[in-house]
Amino acid sequence: xxxxxxxxxxxxxxxxxxxxxxxxxxxxxxxxxxxxxxxxxxxxxxxxxxxxxxxxxxxxxxxxxxxxxxxxxxxxxxxxxxxxxxxxxxxxxxxxxxxxxxxxx
Amino acid sequence: xxxxxxxxxxxxxxxxxxxxxxxxxxxxxxxxxxxxxxxxxxxxxxxxxxxxxxxxxxxxxxxxxxxxxxxxxxxxxxxxxxxxxxxxxxxxxxxxxxxxxxxxxxxxxxxxxxxxxxxxxxxxxxxxxxxxxxxxxxxxxxxxxxxxxxxxxxxxxxxxxxxxxxxxxxxxxxxxxxxxxxxxxxxxxxxxxxxxxxxxxxxxxxxxxxxxxxxxxxxxxxxxxxxxxxxxxxxxxxxxxxxxxxxxxxxxxxxxxxxxxxxxxxxxxxxxxxxxxxxxxxxxxxxxxxxxxxxxxxxxxxxxxxxxxxxxxxxxxxxxxxxxxxxxxxxxxxxxxxxxxxxxxxxxxxxxxxxxxxxxxxxxxxxxxxxxxxxxxxxxxxxxxxxxxxxxxxxxxxxxxxxxxxxxx
Lengths: 105, 409
Ligand SMILES: Cc1cc2nc3c(=O)[nH]c(=O)nc-3n(C[C@H](O)[C@H](O)[C@H](O)COP(=O)(O)OP(=O)(O)OC[C@H]3O[C@@H](n4cnc5c(N)ncnc54)[C@H](O)[C@@H]3O)c2cc1C
Ligand code: FES
Prior knowledge:
The structure holds two protein chains of two kinds. Chain A is mostly beta strands. Chain A contains no helices and eleven strands. Chain A has a single domain (3-103), classed as Rieske [2Fe-2S] iron-sulphur domain (Rieske Iron-sulfur Protein). The radius of gyration of chain A is 13 Å and the shape is globular. In chain B, strands 3-2-1-7-19 form a five-stranded parallel beta sheet. By secondary structure, chain B is of the alpha/beta class. Chain B starts with a strand and ends in a 12-residue tail after the last helix. Chain B has three domains: 4-42 and 62-109 and 239-307, FAD/NAD(P)-binding domain; 113-235, 3-Layer(bba) Sandwich (FAD/NAD(P)-binding domain), CATH 3.50.50.60; 326-406, FAD/NAD-linked reductase, C-terminal dimerisation domain (Enolase-like, domain 1), CATH 3.30.390. Chains A and B meet through loops of A and helix 6, strand 22 and helix 7 of B. The complex binds flavin-adenine dinucleotide (FAD) and FE2/S2 (inorganic) cluster. The site of FE2/S2 (inorganic) cluster has 10 residues of chain A, from loops.
């Protein structure tokens, strides 16, 4: 993967711990999370019924969809609780100079 | 020890119980008996995405037959017509016998039927299962003016779907607001406005006097003498637990099968879970019966643990949702036992929530918003009510303040 695929999301203090922000890039939308051990990124839209996860609740390593409480593991994207049954795509994240970058393919 | 465990009713509670038993007990025989010729499937899409053709039949099953095979869980498509609790036997109408050591009853609930115009019994449609959903979907395709009798969740979800299919829809509700008194009037009114904006007609406070069939269409006479002409009628007037099978037995019934916090019924080795069970909730110190997706799942799992010998209390906070048009409504905890109501927000674009408090503690909440707007706050409410947290009312009522702050770690 070339360097260009790393897209700047914002500064590290733009996200509170155990919380997330929405990040839109071109025609795609993502969620970027700050967990106790670092930053993570997933697709923004729930795999169950196209609702954005930005209004969901982050608990430990999990994001819970605000619509029907489907749960995904933020680090692996694994769908953990129905009605969500399809995994969520995850993206690599790096922090450079207090800035968060995600790698979009 | 190797037991014969039978799960009567192949719905959501049944399948989750079966898989949970297997997680804790690798030896016992587990058999699910279901009268629908289908593996357990999700019902919520029946009134929404299935009618809208966004979800197909094959998208609805909880688990594939491979999952059941791998976990050695048997499924039989059979209807049980008689039970003998004393001898631990179940019978079909052909007198086939099933013998159990432990039994879980998860027979769900069934739609109440309209009693008027018995000669039109076959002309009025109801929605509970996939067969009925398929029939409605097929038949409405060439109908234009559809009447829904009953303004409850399922009736309104059908009204929302049919409106999105460009049908003219009329909803007739006997009460003075939609979705019954458990929903705050303000939220019911917001839902009503959305239906009206989409062209649906909502008639409140009216009773049906008579339905007459005329040239294949229908005339519905209301108690104010007004007449509604319609070409298709669907009724959603509430449901009752499916307990007919147990009426002349020793099983304790009272608005469903009475169970304690361990899903145990009044008969040893007989458990009940899901819509059919009127269970004791230790947090609220009373019995309740819930008809909701998440409850069916969690209650099934809890019953599964107890059947497998892992004694587990059921303490889940009630939660349900309804989706109509682009609105998502959620209800958590109990909203009918309070001494104070606090409002958060007043616009569905950002979400509106009513919190119900008793002695300063949140007991429940009901919210409405576009798509996922209220989900996080409702979820936090469940957590707060679970822990009996005394909350800062200022934060609750101020949408600019995040409720995450209220959760004690
Ligand atoms: C149209 C519709 C929309 C819904 N939408 C929502 C929603 O948006 N949100 C929400 O939270 N909840 C919703 N629900 C409620 C939720 O689906 C139910 O609460 C849940 O399915 C209950 O699960 P259960 O296992 O208790 O019963 P069920 O899933 O009803 O399963 C019971 C099964 O037992 C079978 N059975 C009964 N008697 C016998 C017998 N004698 N022999 C063999 N089999 C038998 C039945 O045929 C049925 O298949 C909806 C329900 C319906 C019908
Ligand atoms: S939309 Fe996310 S769980 Fe349904």
